[in-house]
Amino acid sequence: MITCIAVDDEPKALEVIRHHASKIERLDLRGTFTDPLAALQHLHAEPVQLLLLDIDMPEMNGMVFMKQLKDPPLVIFTTAHREYALDGYSVEAVDFLLKPFTAAQLLAAVMKAEKRSSDTAVSGGDFFFVNTGNQKRRLMYSDVQLVEAEGNYVVYKAGKERVLVRASVAETIAALPSSQFVQIHRSTIISLRHIDKVEDNHVFIGAERRSISATYRAAFYDRLRSLQLPGGH
After folding, report:
1. SS3 166
2. Angle, in degrees to the nearest 10, between helices 11-21 and 103-120
3. 194 and which of 33, 46, 119, 145 could share a cystine (Cβ 3.0–4.6 Å)?
């Protein structure tokens, strides 16, 4: 299942999206927004994997909206204006849906997003491959200490090795095994096995020190408690 929000200045358009989304089991629609600023605030607090985004909005058009996101999710543009299609593809949109679109068309676009996400990492048990440039690099899950956002990319850090992959943090955390990795910040994923200590809402991995943001704090500490042996306070 892929998590998603929809942004459109027309309430009726959002009604259609909610109706279509209710028929698509693989789509988890977390919210709909007529106000782009409210949507941006939501994404900063609760990132999702996919964005259904109208291009032609009076307060902030879709292209400007995308530029406000440091770590943008996958995007499917929706609009009533065919001439905006080329703009949509210029920011590597997954798809472009011309209104009015059907539930079947939305499903096809969502499946493209799932494929794009799965292409980021291909797993093979204790190792996985990532696409970096024109190469496929093999990484061991046990070697990866943390993954961090760097513009439109993420960097896998494994000891002295840094592997740059064009993907978002949302795509990456969805692809990594949840038994081994946890997100602690909108721009940071860490490996549980590499944590040396946790102190004052910071995680220490060797010489690296990373903040646990308020958004992810409760889930992180719940996860830590599930791995803790009895004793102490």
Report:
1. coil
2. 70
3. 145
Other Cβ atoms less than 10 A from the Cβ of 59: the count is 11
**Tokens representing 40?**
């941006």
124-226, CATH topology level: OB fold (Dihydrolipoamide Acetyltransferase, E2P) (2.40.50)
The CATH architecture of the domain made up of 2-119 is 3-Layer(aba) Sandwich (3.40)
Mean pLDDT by 10 residues, the chain (233 residues): 92 96 92 95 87 90 86 86 53 82 93 75 73 88 94 92 91 84 94 94 94 92 80 60
What is the edge-to-edge ordering of all strands in the sheet holding 27-33? Answer: 27-33, 2-7, 50-54, 74-79, 95-98
CB atoms within 10 A of CB 81: 12
